[in-house]
Amino acid sequence: MAAKPRVLVTRRWPAAVEAKMSEVFDVDLNRADRPLGIADFRDAFRDYDAVLPTVTDKLPGEAFGEGAARTKILANYGVGFSHIDTSVAKERGIVVTNTPDVLSECTADIAMTLMLMVARRAGEGERELRDGKWTGWRPTHMIGTKVSGATLGIIGFGRIGQAMAQRAHHGFGMKILVQNRSAVAPEVLARYNAEQVATVDDLLPACDFVSLHCPGGAANRHLINARRLDLMRPGAFLINTARGEVVDEHALAQALWYGTIGGAGLDVFEREPLITPELLHSDNLVMLPHLGSATRETREAMGFRVFENLCDYFEGRAPRDRVV
Ligand code: 8YV
To answer: Contact 300/17 with Cβ under 8 angstroms?
Structure first.
């Protein structure tokens, strides 16, 4: 019988997935659960048939090492893969897969959470209460912004953007504006009574809330910069559950400080887990530690989706979620 493919799982995964994976493949687990570095990946590309990275694994060109790689497939645990230099993977003939669909709902739930928290000042309120500073109800205390019925702009109308529209329109009666790099089918827009606008610059001044659901990577780096923050309505809110690099954090910190916008909710950061220090001074900002897909159900589903992609590949079928 042929030897089992050697697989490197770069972080600890849900136990059920690790167990399933180990039944079928010769699996090495990163027991210390520490992020791996460039040198680790150079070794891994030489020693493993498959490497299973996450968002904490930065894989620029130099991480692929010199010469022929043993690795045939990078099966990413996550939908976003801007941490992988896919042009080098392609050049080396390495297949890349991701885990779409299974995390859309939970990520949209976190975007809604951030939107509600920042608009209704939930983070501030909880801090006040825990700090023993709440003096009691009064008509003018901690007044926020109404979410229901407001206009939400969604940048990137893929699966997660649509899951957000579903919640916002059908749950909160919000008016939905969409900006997407390609035309969205009229029947898809109709599901949320949404309207597509041509550019980000057209969308921003028309919205009370803006939620980012586009991919990261070089093409969208600092898509939201100082100039575009200026285009937003003075009391508007920015929500980012996409990728940190999409927002210029220094520009955002300034906009929050000077009141150019009303507030922001972030689940992802430019240099996560490092946080741009100026952000920590803003009360009108809610920050979460990249929790988008962090539910038991979703993290297991993501793992099993990676497992299916690996089985497809090593059993000679086209992996269902191949992106390179
Ligand atoms: C994942 C995410 O948990 O899937 C993504 O792209 O941003 C997260 O929800 C993370 O990327 C794990 O690799």
So the answer is: yes
pTM for the structure as a whole: 0.96
Domain residue ranges in the chain: 6-102+296-314, 104-287
Ligand 1 pocket at CB < 6 A: 54-55, 77-80, 103, 107, 292-293
Q: Which fold has domain 104-287?
A: Rossmann fold (3.40.50)
Distances (CA, A) of 283 to 122, 128, 290, 293: 11, 11, 19, 25
The CATH number of 6-102+296-314 is which of 3.40.50.2300, 3.30.1120.10, 3.40.50.720, 3.30.70.360?
Answer: 3.40.50.720
Cα(77) to centroid(ligand 1), Å: 7
What would the pLDDT profile of 105-144 be if each residue is shown by its tens digit?
999 999 999 999 999 999 999 999 999 999 999 999 999 9
Q: State the Cα–Cα distance between residues 258 and 28, nearest whole angstrom.
A: 50
Q: Which of 92, 169, 233, 290 is catalytic?
A: 290
Nearest CA to ligand 1 atom 13: 54
272 noted as active-site residue: yes
Convert the pLDDT of each residue in 21-38 to its tens digit. Answer: 999 999 999 988 999 999
- Please say whether the beta carbons of 8 and 51 come within 8 A: yes
